Each structure stands twice: as structure tokens, then as C-alpha cells.
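Thread: quick sanity check before group meeting

JM: Hey all, I'm pulling together slides for Thursday and realized we never actually wrote out the predicted structure for the chain we discussed last week. Dropping the sequence here so it's in one place. If anyone has concerns about the input, flag it before I start.
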Amino acid sequence: MQRVIAPSQASGEGLARAYAGAGLADADRQFMALFVQRFPGFEGGLVLDLGCGPGDITIRFARRYPDATLHGLDGSGAMLRYAQHALANAPDVRTRVRFVQGTLPEAVLPRHQYQAVISNGLLHRLPEPAVLWHALPTLGRPGAAVCIMDLRRPESAAQARAIVERHAGGRPQILRQDFYDGLLAAFVEDEVREQLAAAGLPLAVEACNDHRLLAWGRLPG
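JM (edit): ok, ran it. Output follows.
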């Protein structure tokens, strides 16, 4: 099945509200577990979360690494309003987390040369994935940890529908539709490997489960 890009709902208030209230803890825990496994020596520093949405992983990461300072970037003001609300209710990490509105490559960030760049669910929303890969060497310092998790495109629309029912059957319709659209807009491992090769990035790519993949490694020194 070829990639199909649907009109994005990512900046809408309805979708932001749905994601903020979705309680997607399983996906968040999976992302954190994968990062901890792939980077066992990581202790902290400046960390950039690209496409942070309502801030769930940003805050979770800050709690896991008390010596880390997190900057979350997202293009949706609606998403970031929910992120700020979540941060207001997280006094234990409030001084170490900051959210910024902007999109790559124009975004103006508080700092440069992050020790780690993380992202979950951004890649499939980009019409041109090279925007992300070409930004990484500018955003991260040499040797920075990179951990990018995203949806993985199934072989057919029917498989996409089955995945949505299996993993999100009880979710609100707006989330199910966004999940389905995201699966159709996502990439498969070989496509991501080609993108990374074109950008000169020596990252590994692997499947996480039946609908997610992970690109991870360190930026060239």
C-alpha cells in the first residue's frame, strides 16, 4: 500500500482535547522503556521532545531523569495549552520543563545542541520526512542520543482498520480516525532507512510491534 496523507487534524482543539484525555499510558511507557533500554548510560542534560503534543512523554521523561531539562516543541497551540495544564499539575518537574510552539525547520528553540532528541508520533504527520532528519544534526550535539518512535504503515487499508479496532476500539471516534489516517500516512522500515541514508544519519530502524517502528542511535561525532 502506498502512503496516503489525509488532511491533518493535529492542530484542532477537538483532537487536542481527545489526546489530552486519552490516557495513552501504554504507548508512553513503551517509548520510555525503549529509550532506557537503548541508552542505558544516559543520565540527563538538555533534551528536546519534537511534536510533544499534550506533554505526556515530556513530563514522564523529566520524572525518569531528574538531571534532565526538557523542551517540548509542537506546532499546535491547542496541544500546548493542554501541555501547560499538565505541567501546572506536575510541581515535581515544573522548573525543568518548558513548552514551545513552532514547526521545523523554522522553530526558534530556547537552546541549541541538545544531549538527546526524542519524538513519538511526529514523523507520519510530516508531508516531507527529510525536514525531521536534516534538522537533527543542528538540534543535537555530536554524539547526541536520538530516539524517534512512530507509526508503521500496514500492508492494506483493511489491516489498518483491524489495528485501529484492536488497539483503539473503545476510543472516541476522533482518535480512531486520527489513528487510522496516521497508519496510512506512516512509513515502513525500509523507507525510513532510505531517508536516514539520504540524510547521512547512522541510526538503526526496527519494528516495535504490529503498528510502531523505532529509529534510534547517536548523531555522528
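AS: nice. The helical segments are 13-20, 25-38, 56-64, 77-88, 130-139, 157-168, 173-185, 189-199. The longest strand covers residues 140-151.
JM: adding both to the slides.
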